[in-house]
Design brief:
This protein has 226 residues and is mainly alpha-helical. Helices cover 58% and strands 5% of the residues. It is built from ten helices and five strands; from the N terminus they run βββαααβαβαααααα. The strands form two sheets. The protein has a three-stranded antiparallel sheet. A two-stranded parallel ribbon has the order 4-5. Helix 4 crosses helix 7 (168-175) and helix 6 crosses helix 7 (168-175). It starts with 7 loop residues before the first strand and ends with a helix.
Length: 226
């Protein structure tokens, strides 16, 4: 679709408007945001369109559309899908060796695990190696309740954060401002960074990581504006 508007504004209800016509989601619902900051950030994406609309260049709009069209009709089901990641959280699977990697994992992964233990009164089964070990039912229930308590506009960015990092704990720590986005990214990519240090970087892997990082940063920004 070509750009057909001149002006982009935000109305009193925090809806985005193009030449005073409301922007609508793919499901035809008005694109109305929960905060003024997020509304302006989404509006800025529409202001930056040159000639053709490229959805890939408008990640905040995409997340808002998902919150309204996909999540809001049944937030409990969507939250349950995210909560399932707590069963195999990245932070619970530590390396056996070498000592330098083990030390780095301990330094970056133990603090968010300790935060989650205190915040949600849970216990984590920590595994040395990659063989799956079930987490206690109480842990899964309490982490699930923490996710289910969140509104659709919080669940929308949490979804890519959880899937990109592989960690529900890191996503919740970011959502509750216990960690910033840079710290979460470093913790989530610790193993990949270690491998690159040992064996060098692969060009395709670097490009894939750049794509993941753009998606992660967009989701983290969205979450910070909700």
């Amino acid at each position: 679709m070509k750009r057909f508007w001149k002006d982009v504004t935000v109305d009193a209800e925090r809806g985005v408007r193009l030449d005073d016509r409301p922007v609508r989601t793919p499901g035809r619902a008005p694109l109305v945001l929960p905060t003024a900051g997020l509304a302006e950030a989404v509006a800025d994406e529409w202001r930056m369109v040159a000639d053709d609309i490229d959805p890939r260049a408008m990640p905040l709009t995409g997340l808002a559309n998902a919150a309204i069209d996909r999540i809001a009709p049944d937030p409990a089901a969507f939250a349950a899908g995210l909560a399932a990641y707590g069963e195999s959280d990245l932070l619970c699977y530590h390396a056996e060796s070498p000592p330098e990697l083990v030390e780095r994992q301990t330094a970056l992964w133990n603090p968010p695990l300790d935060w989650a233990r205190d915040r949600y009164d849970v216990h984590f089964e920590i595994v040395t190696g990659v063989i799956h070990r079930a987490q206690p039912d109480a842990t899964i229930d309490r982490l699930g309740a923490a996710v289910a308590a969140r509104a659709p506009f919080e669940l929308a960015p949490l979804s890519p954060i959880v899937t990109i990092t592989g960690s529900l704990v890191l996503a919740l720590a970011l959502a509750e401002r216990a960690m910033d986005a840079d710290a979460v990214w470093r913790a989530a990519n610790l193993d990949e960074d270690w491998q690159a240090e040992q064996w060098g970087e692969d060009e395709l892997a670097v490009k894939a990581r750049e794509t993941r990082q753009r998606d992660f940063e967009a989701a983290a920004r969205f979450l910070s504006l909700v």
